[in-house]
Every structure is written in structure tokens, then in C-alpha cells.
Amino acid sequence: MTKNSVTKRTTLVREMSAERDFTINEVTTIVNKTLEKLVAHAANDNSAAFVGFVTFKSTGHATRKGHNPQTGEAIIIPARSVP
């Protein structure tokens, strides 16, 4: 992999499994749990970084107007933070 390459999760899991004595399911669990924890920290603290690997940052969405697509009724969509 080059420094700026993009890798799919499945490719990462397959390569990690081939390099170590772990099954694909074990590596998948490790990768998924690691990413879940980083996203959870980003949601709670507004950002989380795995230095040299990835940074997650929460984004805030302001309160806005919307409509119910089934009824056409106008609604207010509350503000929220999205990891």
C-alpha cells in the first residue's frame, strides 16, 4: 500500500489474516470493534484519532425545517451531532 491509497475493509482484513495466525472472522471482529470504539469516542468527545491511521470528527447539524414525505406536513428537524 502507498501512503495515499484507499483500501477496502475486506482487503485489509484478508491481508491481515494472511500475515498472522488469525482467521478472517477474528480479524473482522478486531477491525470492527476498533472502528466502533473510535466512532463512539468521536460521538462523545467530538473527535477521535488513531494517530497515523484515521481521524474521526463529529459534525453538528443545526435545527432545520423539513417535511414529512408521506403527508407533506412541515416539521422541524432538531439539531444533532453526527459522528
From TrEMBL:
Record's keyword annotation contains DNA-binding: yes
Under Gene3D superfamilies, the record lists:
IHF-like DNA-binding proteins (4.10.520.10)
Recorded GO molecular functions are:
DNA binding; structural constituent of chromatin
Do the record's keywords include ATP-binding?
Answer: no
Q: InterPro entries recorded for this chain?
A: Hist_DNA-bd, IHF-like_DNA-bd_dom_sf
Q: Which domain of life is it from?
A: Bacteria
Q: Pfam families under this entry?
A: Bac_DNA_binding
Which controlled-vocabulary keywords does the entry list? Answer: DNA-binding
Q: How far does the signal peptide extend, from start to end residue?
A: none
- Protein name, as recorded: DNA-binding protein HU
Q: Which organism is it from?
A: Lactiplantibacillus pentosus
